[in-house]
Amino acid sequence: MAGSTQGRGPKAANGAREAEILGLLQQADGALTPGEVAERLGGALSYSTVVTILTRMHVKQLLTRTPRGRAYAYAPVTDDPGYAARRMRTVLEERPDREAVLARFADGLSTTDAELLRQLLGPEQDPRQ
């Protein structure tokens, strides 16, 4: 097979590669350079591909980067629950009727999740008090 992916794994969608790299960075003890990321991926991606993906993720504000030698070292801006919360907020902000979206979301919650959400939102204040 000709091309730059010869000898590498099958081509994956950008989102899948980003998720794979994000997971790797979240498990790391600290920020990683593109070379360190490529090494931990076991050669599945070329160095230049890793640089491209990390740069895109930085532009999307998924990663921070700090200079380390002649490269940058990348780290996630938040943990996995933080990313899930960001995705939920993004979806909510993209819809014109927030009340309808939140109502449908709440209707779909299990009893356990609904109770957890009530606890997280805090005790209701009686406006008559």
UniProtKB/TrEMBL annotation:
GO terms for biological process: negative regulation of DNA-templated transcription. Gene3D superfamilies: Winged helix-like DNA-binding domain superfamily/Winged helix DNA-binding domain. The keyword Zinc-finger does not apply. This is CopY family transcriptional regulator. Keywords: DNA-binding, Transcription, Transcription regulation. Pfam families: Penicillinase_R (PF03965). SUPFAM superfamilies: Winged helix' DNA-binding domain. One of its GO terms (molecular function) is DNA binding. Belongs to the BlaI transcriptional regulatory family. It comes from Streptomyces pluripotens. InterPro entries: BlaI_family (IPR005650), WH-like_DNA-bd_sf (IPR036388), WH_DNA-bd_sf (IPR036390). The keyword Transcription applies.
